[in-house]
Amino acid sequence: MKYVDEYRDGALARRIADTIAAEVVCERSYAFMEFCGGHTHAISRYGIEDMLPPGLRMIHGPGCPVCVLPVGRIDDAIRLARSPAVTLCTYADMMRVPGSKGGSLLKAKAAGADIRMIYSSLDAVRIAEAEPGREVVFFAIGFETTTPPTAIALRAAIAKGLRNFSIFCNHVLTPVAMRAILEAPAEPGAPPVAIDGFVGPAHVSTVIGMAPYHEFAETYRKPVVIAGFEPLDVMQAILMLVRQVNTQRAEVENQYIRAVTAAGNLTAQVLCAEIFAVREAFEWRGLGVVPASALRLRDAYADYDAERRFEIHTVHADDNPACECPAILRGRKRPAECKLFGTVCTPETPMGACMVSSEGACAAHWSYGRFREHQRLAS
Amino acid sequence: MTAPSELKAYRRKLDLRAGRVDMSHGSGGRAMADLITGIFRAAFANKFLDQGNDQASLPMPTGGRLVMTTDGYVVSPLFFPGGDIGSLAVHGTINDVAMAGAKPLYLSASFIIEEGFAFADLKRIADSMGAASRESGVPVVTGDTKVVERGKADGVFIATAGIGVVPDGISLSGDRAAPGDAVLISGSIGDHGVAIMSSRENLEFETAIVSDSAALHGLVAAMLDAAGAQIKLLRDPTRGGLAATLNELAQQSGVGFRIDEAAIPVKSQVAAACELLGLDPLFVANEGKLVAVVDAEAAVALLAAMRAHPLGRDAAIIGRVVADAQRFVQMTTAFGGGRIVDWLSGEQLPRIC
Amino acid sequence: MCLAIPALVVELLPEQMARISLDGVTKTISVALVDNVAPGDYVIVHVGHALSRIDAEEAARTLALFAEAGRLMQAASA
C-alpha cells in the first residue's frame, strides 16, 4: 500500500531506534505522552516499546473518544435505541462499550433494538432518507477528526429536507483535554508526573493545524511533535522530542508534513464553526468534568439535535471505585498497577475507560503487551 | 380402455423458478418427499442416498480408527464470492475430519429451512453442495429436512456430520505440540472473512478477494506422505482466525509460540481491506487453510510437499513452539518490535478508531 | 479515534463523492472536505470522508529524513 508500507520498514526502524538510543542522555529519563489513541494502538501493535531505550517511557493519553465517553451518555444512547420508533446509527467501536448496569448497544441490539452499525456519517443520512417512518439518530462521537464528517452529514440532511434525522452529539476537543492533563492536581503524597513532551495527534492535526498546540510550547514549556500514524512516523517524532528536550527547546514541530499543514483544513474548520458551539462543560470518563471541552449543535440546528428532540437529561453514573483509569490516563499508574486489571477488568468485561476500546492504555497493554510484565518479573 | 403407458404419474413438478418452501414441506407428507426428490436427491445422487432410507448402510472400514465430526453452518450472507453455505458446509466438515489425518468417507446434511425460502436458492445451495461433494470424492449419504416458521431461521441453516478413517500410526492431536517444533501455515490468511464482509450491505467495499473455502484432505494426504510420523497436529483456523487457533493450541499443549509476522502470507487486497476497516488479518476467518506443527527436522521437507500441492502453493514456516508457563503466543512484528497475539475479544467489529 | 488511511482517488462522482482505491480494494467516499480533488491524488480517508490530500513531495522528504537519521548514526560510529 502506497504511503503506508514504506512507513513500516523494519530496517529503517532499527536505525532510528539506534539513533534514539545514542542521543538520549543517560543521566536523565524521558516521559512522553502520546495523546491520540491511534498512536497508543500503533505503539502496542508494532511493539515500539521494545525498540526504545530503557530511560524513555511512553505515557498513554486519553485521546480515545470511545474510552472517554462517560457512562451516562452510553446509557442515553441505549435508552434512545430502545424506543420502538428510533433507529440508532453508530460507529462499530461503540457497540461493546458498557453502560451502567452492564448494558451495551450490542446487548440492546440482541434484545431487539434497531441499532445499525455504519462506516460513514452519510450512511445514517441514507438510512433516514430510505426509511421515512423511522426516527434516525446518529450517535456522533470523536475528536476534531471525526467532527467534520458529522457536519457534512447534517448539511446533507438539511439539503434533502429530512425531518426524521437527528444527531446525538458527543464530539470532544483535543487541546482542552491536553491542558486538563497538564493541570491535573498532584495527588497528596504522590510525585507529580513529569510529561516532558507530547506526540501530537495525526489526523486531528490535519483538521486543526498546528496553532492550537502553541500554548503547550509557550505557556507550559512542553515540546509537541505532531506525528503520522505509521510506526516510523512515531519513532521519528520520538527522536525529534528527545532532541528538543536535550537542547531545552519547547516548540511545536510537524513530523507529519505529508498530511498536516500549519493552517489545517480551513473548509472543515469553517463548516464546524458554523454548525457547532462549545459546551460550557462536559464530563469525561476518567478525567471528570472539563470546561469548554466538547461541542453541541448550535441553536439554529435545534431541530436536528437529538438531545432536544428526545429531551435527553444525562444522569451521571460512577465507574467501579477500584478503577484506576483517572491515574492511568494521567500517566500516574500503569495498567498492571490497577487491582482490577486482567481479573475483573478485561476487554470482554471492561470496567473503565482504559479498557473499553482497543486504543485504551489497558486494552492495548492486555492485547499486545502484557507479556512484558512477566519478562520484568522474570529478569 | 387406457393403455398402461398413458396413465399419468400424478407427480407435480416443483416450481423451481418461483416456488417457496412452506410448512408443508417439513411435515413428512407428499410435499416434503417432492422437495427431497426434486432438490436434494437430484443434487447429491449416490448409491447410499439412493437406498432411499432414513439412514445409510455403509461398509465397515478395515483397519485404522474411525473419526467423526459434526458442524453447523449459519453463514450470512448465504451466497458470497467464492462459495455459499452449501459448499462451505461440505468443505468445512471434510476439513474437520482431515485435521485428524483421516481420509474423509461420508457426510450427512441436515437442513433447517425458513418458511418462505425460495426453491431457486435452495436448489442453488444443494447443487453447490453436490458439486463440492463430487469434486472432493466424499458423498452426502444421508440427510434430513425441517421447516420452521418465518423468522425462526436466517434463510437456511445446515448441520452436518462427517466420518473418516485415520490409519494406525498417525495420531494428530492439539495437545502434542512440544518446544522446538516448527509451525507452518498452508497459505494466505484472512481471505474468507474479507470475502464475507465485502458482501455485507453495511460495509460496501468492492474487492476481487474470494473466499478460500476448499476441501483440504488431498493436501493433508500429501503432507502425511512426506512427514506423517513427525507431524504433531493439524488445525484449520476458521472463526477467530489464526490467532484463535494458536491460542487454543497453546492452552491444549501447555506451550507458547514465537511467530514471525513477516513470514505470515497475506494477500495485498486482504491487507488493504483490513486496513480500511481497521481489522487485524490474524483474527479473520479462513476456510481453506491449515496450521501444522511438526518436528523441526521435518519442517523443510513438509514445506516442500505443501508447496507442491495446489492448495499449499503459498505455504510458509511461520514460527516455532517454545516452553512458556503463561502460554503466550508472542510475535515479532514486521517492524521489529514484539507483541502478543491474544484471543479475539468478542466479535471482530470493524474498527474505525 | 483517528484511524485514517491514505488512498488513491480513482474517479470523481456526483454530489462531492469519489471512488478511492487501496491496493485494488475500492470504496465510495465523500470528498466534500477537500478542495479540488482530482483522480490521481492520494487522500487521507477517515470514516468515509477525505480529510486532507497527501503531499507527494513532503512524503518523499519524510522518507529521506528517516534514512538520514540512520546515516548520521553510522557515520558517527565509524
What would you say this structure looks like, in words?
The complex is a heterotrimer of chains A (379), B (353) and C (78). Chain A is an alpha/beta fold and 379 residues long. Helices cover 39% and strands 17% of the residues of chain A. Chain A has 17 helices and 13 strands. In chain A, helix 2 packs parallel to helix 16. Chain B has 2 domains: 23-166, 60s Ribosomal Protein L30, Chain: A (2-Layer Sandwich); 182-340, PurM-like C-terminal domain (Phosphoribosyl-aminoimidazole Synthetase, Chain A, domain 2, Alpha-Beta Complex). Helix content of chain B is 28%, strand content 22%. In chain B, the strands form 3 sheets. A 7-stranded mixed β-sheet of chain B has the order 8-10-7-11-9-12-13. Chain B has a 4-stranded mixed β-sheet with strand order 1-6-4-5. A two-stranded antiparallel ribbon of chain B has the order 2-3. Chain C contains 1 helix and 5 strands, in the order βββββα. The longest helix of chain C has 22 residues, at 56-77. Chains in contact: A-B, A-C, B-C. Chains A and C meet through helix 1, helix 6, helix 7, helix 9 and helix 11 of A and strand 1, strand 4, strand 5 and helix 1 of C.
The overall strand count of chain A is 13
CATH architecture of the largest domain in chain A: 3-Layer(aba) Sandwich
Give the CATH superfamily of the largest domain in chain A.
Answer: HypD, alpha/beta domain 2
| CATH class category of the largest domain in chain B | Alpha Beta
What's the N-to-C terminus distance of chain B? 81 Å
Average predicted local confidence, pLDDT of chain A: 92
Extended strand count of chain B: 13
Structural class of chain A: alpha/beta
Following the backbone from N to C, one meets helices and strands of chain B in this order, namely HEEEHEHEEEHHEHEHEHEEE
What class, by secondary structure content of chain B?
alpha+beta
Biggest β-sheet description of chain A? 5 strands, parallel
Name of the CATH class of the largest domain in chain A: Alpha Beta
Shape of chain B: globular
CATH topology of the largest domain in chain A: Rossmann fold
In order across it, which strands form the biggest sheet of chain A? 2-1-7-8-9
Radius of gyration of chain B: 22 Å
Instruction: State the CATH topology of the largest domain in chain B.
Output: Phosphoribosyl-aminoimidazole Synthetase, Chain A, domain 2
What are the low-pLDDT stretches of chain B, counting only 5+ consecutive residues below 50?
none
